[in-house]
Amino acid sequence: MFRVVLLFVGGGTGTLLRYSMQGWLSRGLMSTFPLGTLVVNVLGCFLIGFLGGMFFGPRPIGDDYRFGILTGILGGFTTFSTFGWETMQLTSDREFLAASANVILSVGVGLAAVWFGKQIVQMLYSIS
Asked: What integer is the mean pLDDT of 24-46?
């Protein structure tokens, strides 16, 4: 139960951090390029690599706290960081085919799913 509470609080915290950082960057730069999302995703990837490396290496912490930080806070901050971590774990395990499939399927199928979902809405509501 303690892990669930940590995940819940961490997820909310990460979401608020993402919202704040994306908004701050978007307002400050006044650009159509989604720089806020890019910065959040890259920062989240760096943090999960650094903290995961520490928590599974020289500075281990309890499982509940590790889940609260890596899955809760960083999962709420960006799921892209989890995607990056899992892909790097596959390459570390020399599972290069699985790592490549994860990248291709996550990006390719993910974009296709977004397109498909939007097409259904346009079809249902006769939007062109």
From this structure: 83
Helices 35-55 & 79-92, crossing angle to 10 degrees?
A: 50
The percent helix, strand, coil of the chain (3-state, each to 5) is 85, 0, 15
The 10s digit of each residue's pLDDT in 39-77 is 898 998 899 989 999 998 899 999 999 999 999 999 999
- Six-digit token pair at 39? 């910065």
Report CA-CA distances (Å) from 4 to 86, 101, 121: 21, 31, 35
Cβ 14 vs Cβ 72: under 8 Å: yes
Cα angle at 111 between 29 and 124, to 5 degrees? Answer: 100
Would you list the domain boundaries of the chain?
A: 2-94, 96-128
Q: What does the pLDDT average to over 8-36?
A: 87
The C-alpha R_g of the chain, in whole angstroms, comes to 17
